[in-house]
Amino acid sequence: EAQVTQNPRYLITVTGKKLTVTCSQNMNHEYMSWYRQDPGLGLRQIYYSMNVEVTDKGDVPEGYKVSRKEKRNFPLILESPSPNQTSLYFCASGDTGREQYFGPGTRLTVT
Amino acid sequence: ILNVEQSPQSLHVQEGDSTNFTCSFPSSNFYALHWYRWETAKSPEALFVMTLNGDEKKKGRISATLNTKEGYSYLYIKGSQPEDSATYLCALGGGADGLTFGKGTHLIIQP
Predict the structure, then answer these.
(1) From residue A10, how far is each of A7, A18, B39 by CA, in Å?
(2) Residues A79-93: pLDDT tens digits?
(3) Nearest alpha-carbon partner for A105 in A62, A64, A76, A65
(4) B49 near B32, Cβ under 8 Å?
(5) N vs C: which end of chain B shows fewer Cβ within 10 Å?
């Protein structure tokens, strides 16, 4: 089944404790991206990648890191999470210029 | 950061009525315009990706038009049904500059 998977789906953590949210797709898509969704602010792009070893900042990259060592995986790393990173996170993939397929979302709470 | 505006923010429509809403965007450096449908507790799902001025796309009772010269796109729903209740997102870009989403139009269909 063609899909984008994210793990974990839910995470509660404390300020400063490094965490990684994984994202994997099985559709051989070149383009992958991370978004955060906050009430009243809509979906905002954090980072995106147009191919392996190519990553670019989106609109809200501060406090996040990503890597694209393999085509199928695009993990999101929070080196030192803070409460303002509490949000719903979505990973998405697609062919460049085509529709994006979204993962199920990860709800992160930082206390 | 690109400015993608959607109006109205929310909309109540009687079942069976037709409706439409707007996505406005800067007309310079246009790459592509995406429409997504986002149901509560689910992930956004692609409806259309449009790239050419004058594009019209249709999927069942939902259709969309694109005017890149004046920077707007309309989404139309004909004969609204309760299952059409969702947030409808438009997004600009998807090429080398990433994808910028509007805040969405929240549509509620009243039986």
Answers:
(1) 8, 15, 19
(2) 999 999 999 999 999
(3) A76
(4) yes
(5) C
Rounded Cα distance, B86 and B70, in Å: 27
Of B34, B45, B99, the CB nearest to A33: B99
pLDDT digits (tens, 9 = 90+) for A32-66: 999 999 998 889 999 999 999 999 999 999 999 99
- As a whole number of angstroms, the distance between CA B44 and CA B42 comes to 7
What's the order of all strands across the beta sheet hosting A76-78?
A4-7, A19-25, A76-78, A65-66
φ, ψ at B84 (rounded to 5°): -80, -10
Which of B57, B90, B101 should be substituted to probe chain A, the one whose Cβ sees the most A Cβ atoms within 10 Å?
B101
Per-residue model confidence as pLDDT tens digits over B69-85: 999 999 999 999 999 99
